Amino acid sequence: MSPNPPTWSEQVVTFGPSRELVGIDTVPTHAREVPAVLILNAGILHRVGPNRLHVELARRVAARGHRALRFDLAGIGDSPARRDGRDLGDGVKADVDAAIALLKNPAGVVVFGLCAGGDNALRAAARNPAVVGAVLLDPTVFRTPGWYARRARLRAREPESWRRLGRLARDGVTRALERLRPPTGDACATGPAREEGRPEFFYTGFSTVQEVEAHLVAALARDVELYYAFTGGWSEIYNYETQLRDNHPKVDFGHRLRLRWNPDADHTYTLRRLRDALLTDLDDWLDRPAFTSPRL
User: Fold this and answer.
1) From start to end of the chain, where are the E strands?
2) Per residue in 169-222, pLDDT tens?
3) Pairing with 106, which of 37, 48, 171, 290 sits 20 to 30 Å away (CA)?
4) Residue ranges of domains in the chain
5) Strand 109-114 vs strand 131-137: parallel, antiparallel, or unpaired?
6) Which CATH class is domain 8-143+182-291?
7) How far is CA 164 from CA 150, 158, 170, in A?
């Protein structure tokens, strides 16, 4: 018996002002009046995503009737470096907006991003009226008093922690405090903490809590649906379920936030059972009335 035929097709597309951006358009055989899904690069990784996550996601949502586009920002993968003189931030914005324009979907677009891709997804959600949803996996987030309290409790149970404490004392208080400084960079690009003096090669993370908050407020004002998921691989920055809400206590997420804390998962969802759980939850989220019913 032959296997079931695929319920989607794929084609290479080039787009942008000079058709320099390269992507894979995954088109469902039987499209529905639902949002398209735009999948952004995770840091400087090629459009296939970590462990082919983006390929699997695109084909999975296309099988459920969502058109999906995964593409390379200028300077990543098959898209050549930009030659228009734009800085990194403006260039990424222009590339993402060009991809959204290519989709031209009446039901809107859900933007998906891991790590730096999550930060870029939030920026798009805050500014582009076509964006109706954003999926952010391990994006920029900031440590809270709750993070430090949990970290201290966990480390107190480890013998190595007491030896480390002695070494820190010998190093001096100033150096110890430097090691505890909250990260402001993007781990997909430069590691959990952005180092002073390092070039900003594909550093697209947010610098402050207030900057993230402004984008959240702008997105929520347009009724954008938000899906956030944090992993155990991000525990140096995020280590308990409600830390996102503690970062932004004044933001009224209402019913538009789905927040997941997956402490057993690594940053790129390497284990099959944890990846399947993530993708199944995303299936359920995309089937919400906010996406399947006409927006008024």
Assistant:
1) 8-15, 21-28, 36-39, 68-71, 109-114, 131-137, 225-231, 257-262
2) 566 555 544 555 554 444 454 334 444 443 344 566 788 999 999 999 999 999
3) 48
4) 8-143+182-291, 146-179
5) parallel
6) alpha beta
7) 17, 10, 10
